[in-house]
Design brief:
By secondary structure, this protein is an alpha+beta fold. Among the domains are: 111 residues, no CATH class; 34 residues. The protein is 32% helix and 15% strand. It has 5 helices and 5 strands, in the order βββββααααα. Strands 1-3-4-2-5 form a 5-stranded antiparallel beta sheet, with no helix packed on it. The chain starts with 10 loop residues before the first strand and ends in a 13-residue tail after the last helix.
């Protein structure tokens, strides 16, 4: 979700329906379908709503008459506030922000509290170091092990894998899709491809089976003309 300041410039208040002290992070979503400027915004998605924004009295409607752009703050069943040792014990979902950084007209931000630890950076190693520190980091020939580039690549790979796993888990919670339905659709699609690839062999096999089980009627004996 892009965070354009113009989308929330007409906000007047942030209303929390639950105590934000119970949340390290909340999910921040923008809706363009709110029917009023100030009344509670209905939430029909997964999880539950814990807050919303209200607009100034003169806030303009969207392109659709009577529809307004407002923010909704919500949590899901597997978020840290609900399951402290769950999938988001550390890190946050893509829309997660620290509710303490939210204000009218101000987008929420990810903090160390929201992340559950130090925020990830481009590198855990300082850009500069003394000669002694640099020398200490050089691997000696009698110390076999992966190079720094290999170790960094492995760390990046693990980070990407964790991110993909969490994103997929989040997607599954947002979409009502069961595993049997997903597998059934995949098997059906693969079977369709197999039929297209083997249709000639199937037709020949069916024709052969039919021919073997079909008994042709006996021909009447021919009569010679007298």
């Amino acid at each position: 979700m892009s965070k354009d300041p113009a989308d929330i410039q007409h906000e007047e208040r942030i209303v929390w329906t639950e105590d934000i002290d119970g949340f390290d992070y909340v999910r921040e979503t923008l809706t363009t379908e709110a029917g009023t400027r100030a009344r509670p915004v209905p939430w029909h998605g997964a999880g539950r709503r814990v807050g919303y924004s209200t607009l100034n009295r003169d806030a303009p409607s969207n392109d659709s008459a009577g529809r307004f752009t407002r923010r909704i703050f919500w949590v899901k069943e597997h978020d840290r506030s609900e399951r402290p040792d769950g999938v988001y014990k550390t890190a946050t979902p893509s829309e997660g922000v620290d509710p303490r950084t939210v204000a009218p007209g101000v987008w929420g931000e990810v903090t160390e509290r929201a992340w559950g630890g130090p925020l990830p950076g481009p590198s855990d190693t300082p850009m500069s170091a003394t000669r002694e520190e640099a020398k200490g980091r050089v691997r000696q020939p009698d110390q076999p092990g992966p190079s720094r580039s290999a170790a960094a690549s492995s760390k990046e790979t693990r980070t990407v894998e964790q991110g993909v796993t969490k994103a997929f888990a989040d997607w599954l919670y947002l979409h009502e899709v069961s595993v049997p339905e997903t597998l059934g659709a995949a098997i059906g699609e693969e079977f369709k491809r197999w039929l297209w690839a083997n249709n000639e062999e199937l037709i020949a096999a069916i024709a052969n089976a039919v021919a073997q089980q079909t008994t042709l009627p006996e021909q009447p004996p021919s009569t010679k003309e007298q």
